[in-house]
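User: Fold this; C-alpha cells only.

Assistant: Input:
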Amino acid sequence: MDSAAYTIMSSFLPFSVTLGLECKIVDNPSLIRLAIGKRFDELDGGSTRMMILLRVPQSPIWRRVLSLLVIRARVALSRRILATLGCREWHAFALYPTCESPTVIYQIASRASSYVEDCILPRPSYLSLRGILRKLIRCATGVDPGIGGVMLTCFH
C-alpha cells in the first residue's frame, strides 16, 4: 500500500475498520478490472466495500489541466466498469490539495461540494486571468482545479 492509500485509509479509519474497506490505487480507469481481479459477487465475505483513487498529477501544468478536463469521463468510465463487476452503490469524493495528505475530503455533486468550494477552499480573485481560468475549469469539470484526485467508494 503506498502513502496515498495509507493516508486515505487512516482518514477513514473508524469507517474502514467497521466496514472492512480495501483501498486500490488506480491511475487509469481501464485498470480497475485488473486491480480488483474478480467480480464483487465472487469476492470473499459477501458484502464488499472498496476505495478506488483516481489521481490528478501535480505537474507539469498542462498534464494537470488535461487530467482535470477528463476527470468526469474517468469517473464515468470507472463507474461503468464497477457496474459490470457487480458494484451496486458508489460515491465520488474530491481530495484537496493532494492525495498523500488531504486536508479536505468532500462528496462531489452534493450540497457539501458547493459549500466547500465556495466557503472553505481558497479562491483567487475572479478579476484576474488565473481566477477566470479556475472558474472555467471548475464549471467544465464539476470540481475545484486544486484537487489532488477523486476517490470512489464502492459498495456491494
